């Protein structure tokens, strides 16, 4: 226990980085998801094909492979583009930015299906009634679409969030000092890897428990006035 207390500061800093990566990633994933759902539901064949390819690619390739590919391959592409155009000499992608963008891009595919399914669950008659009442697109979205979209999407969104939270551990391979990497460094320094990885396990369980409480609150919030069968 004493050795854990000795390394509590880097472990807590790593936990903070993990939380920050997860929050930034989920915001980006929601953006990709809404855009992808809009594309798959649009009347444009090109948009449907592009968004369909996006979800198929991401769901068919392991997360770690995509992360390494986007981090190293993306950096190489940017530097080759800079050399070809002369706009910049050399760019090095920050590990935090790379991790957030990659996780957001990956889970944007899952959020796409979450929001698409939630939109399809909204009764068409309500949308038609809003249009018949003269609602603008913005008002229709705020008053009719979003409250029900959030309610129908929350169960799947919650699952995606919990998986995303665990996926942040993969960012350690990029060299970012998040919870898993800090636990590994502390464990290797003290030759007590099991102890520090067990501490990381407990922290992840605590974050999951807090997330579960928050998600249940959101479900109650968006289910006000809905009678359950």
Summary keywords:
229 residues, MetI-like fold, 82% helix
How is this structure best described in words?
The chain has helices at residues 2-6, 8-41, 45-60, 63-85, 95-121, 124-132, 137-167, 179-190, 193-222. The chain is an all-alpha fold. The longest helix is centred in the N-terminal third of the chain and has 34 residues, at 8-41. The chain is flat, with a radius of gyration of 21 Å.
How are the secondary structure elements laid out?
Blueprint: H1 2-6, H2 8-41, H3 45-60, H4 63-85, H5 95-121, H6 124-132, H7 137-167, H8 179-190, H9 193-222
Helix pairs in contact: 2-3, 2-5, 2-8, 3-5, 4-5, 5-7, 6-7, 7-9, 8-9
What is the structure about, briefly put?
Helix content is 82%, strand content 0%. It is mostly helical.
Using the 3D structure, state the CATH architecture. Orthogonal Bundle
CA-based gyration radius? 21 Å
What is the level 1 CATH name? Mainly Alpha
Helix content: over 70%
Reported by name, the CATH topology is MetI-like fold
Question: Ranges with pLDDT <50 over ≥5 residues?
Answer: none
Mean pLDDT level: 87
